[in-house]
Write a structure and sequence with these properties.
Cathepsin B, Chain A; Peptidase_C1B; 43% helix; EC 3.4.22.40; protease; hydrolase; alpha+beta; two-stranded antiparallel sheet
């Protein structure tokens, strides 16, 4: 037995140390009381600070009008990034067409993304095989973990809408597999990993580009079949029939989804006019610089995912100005931190973890949380309101996509401190962005590694 193994065994927890920790735990009456409470209910509810929740009411002095109806629900899927965009677009769309309620088809963009993303990764794996990238290297390991991920980033939405357009939900409704995506995603991932193996071998065996392309097309057709069976195949042309608020019947179409976007949506929401601003405070990534993440995309030959890195005060001001102008804001955040699901509260002071556990999880700075794997962009939602005291932001109204049984009929409330700590990116119209910040978008981006936390996907 080597000396290293002996040393590692010597570091194990001994009986005396284990007995000391047990005695220390039960000698504190607070631990016994906390244990009695937490074994019977959610510990997050036990340590919820009532003095904080009482102050954070769902009332706002600045809101967009109208807010979207009905409240959307992504169910058990990672499509929040799609829902958040479509929730934003529908509010001016409802106003334009005098609608009481409306939804765009989330499953349509979801289907398009699944096919495009599969094609993107098949191309990427051929490229990496030609470069001699090791199959057991960190890059390949990262990309093979979940190639058919449900989640996404803002620029992926831009790619999809500009190529495929939009359609009303009634023209391509939800299916079981859209709302319960795990099983379909597992099948597609299985196919993609097998395809990666075959394509790499073809490159190593010296097959021609034409032979590889022919094989890749057959692989993509199989993935299309899986998605078509589970999600449905979107119609090439749609007819949208609807009643307006005055109970008048209208019909638009037959029309392609791309024509529908260009003729009926783009004038009220031009996705090319939107700018994604991120807050990455790590010292290695200075502000006023452009960044991208290696192999982070969903469409071959399209725009890459770009990040204009700015201080959090910039994100806050841009979001505020947008809402004041009656325009909702797409944003990405780490939603699981300091979140009270029952009341829909996002507040860094909502839970007194130190009182319950004797430990404070907020000791790390935002930069250190990104560095040490404590923080990722996990979810995308929509800002629809803000409470202002002059130009000072106090709290934010958030439209989520988890149904109407959370918070205020599905709407969440976010403290301004939570915004600073856990919001990572916002998307606003370029008319709100100062010229000097827009100029940053013209720079050549710094390429971050594929596994960088800023490359995480909102789900």
């Amino acid at each position: 037995m080597s000396d290293n193994i002996v040393k590692l065994k010597a570091l194990g927890i001994g009986e005396a140390e284990s007995a000391w920790m047990r005695e220390s735990f039960y000698s504190d009456p607070k631990n016994r009381l906390a244990q009695n409470a937490c074994v019977k209910q959610d510990f997050l509810e036990v340590c919820l600070d009532r003095t904080v929740t009482e102050k954070m009411t769902h009332r706002f002095n600045t809101k967009i009008d109208p807010e979207g109806k009905p409240m959307t629900n992504q169910k058990n899927s990672g499509r929040c990034w799609i829902f958040a965009l479509l929730n934003i677009i529908r509010t001016p769309f409802m106003k334009k067409f005098n609608l009481e309620e409306f939804e765009f088809s989330q499953s349509y963009l979801f289907f398009c993304d699944k096919i495009e993303r599969a094609n993107y990764y098949l191309d990427a794996w051929v490229e990496m095989a030609k470069k001699g990238e090791a199959v057991d290297g960190r890059l390949m390991h990262h990309l093979l973990q979940n190639p058919s991920d449900d989640g996404g980033q803002w620029d992926m939405l831009v790619n999809l809408v500009n190529k495929y357009g939009l359609m009303p939900r009634q023209c391509f409704p939800e299916t079981f597999a859209c709302q319960q995506t795990f099983k379909m995603k597992r099948i597609v991932n299985n196919l993609l990993r097998k395809d990666c193996y075959i394509l790499r071998k073809m490159v190593q065996d010296g097959k021609t580009d034409e032979e590889i392309h022919t094989k890749k097309s057959a692989m993509l057709a199989k993935i299309y079949t899986v998605c078509g069976i589970c999600i449905g195949v979107p119609p090439e042309n749609v007819v949208w029939e609807y009643y307006d608020k005055d109970k008048q019947y209208h019909a638009i179409g037959p029309i392609t989804p791309l024509e529908f976007y260009r003729q009926h949506v783009q004038d009220i929401y031009n996705i090319d006019d939107k700018v994604c601003i991120v807050n990455d405070p790590r010292p290695t990534n200075p502000y006023n610089k452009m960044y991208t993440v290696d192999y982070l995309n969903n469409m071959a030959g399209s725009n890459i995912v770009l990040y204009n890195n700015q201080p959090i005060e910039v994100l806050r001001k841009l979001a505020m100005e947008s809402i004041k102008s009656n325009e909702a804001v797409w944003f990405g955040c780490d939603v699981g931190k300091h979140f009270c699901r029952s009341s829909g509260l996002l507040d860094t002071n909502a839970h007194d973890f130190k009182l319950l556990f004797g430990a404070d999880p907020l000791l790390l700075s935002k930069a250190d949380r990104l560095i040490y794997g404590e923080m990722f962009m996990t979810h995308a939602m929509t800002f629809t309101g803000v409470n202002l005291e002059g130009e000072k932001t106090l709290k934010w109204r958030v439209e989520n996509s988890w149904g109407d049984d959370i918070g205020d009929k599905g709407y969440l409330i976010m403290s301004d401190d939570w915004f600073s700590d856990f919001v990572l990116e916002v998307v606003v119209d370029k008319k709100f962005v100062p010229t000097e910040i827009l100029e940053v978008n013209k720079e050549k981006p710094v390429v971050l590694p594929a596994w960088d936390p800023m490359g995480s996907l909102a789900q």
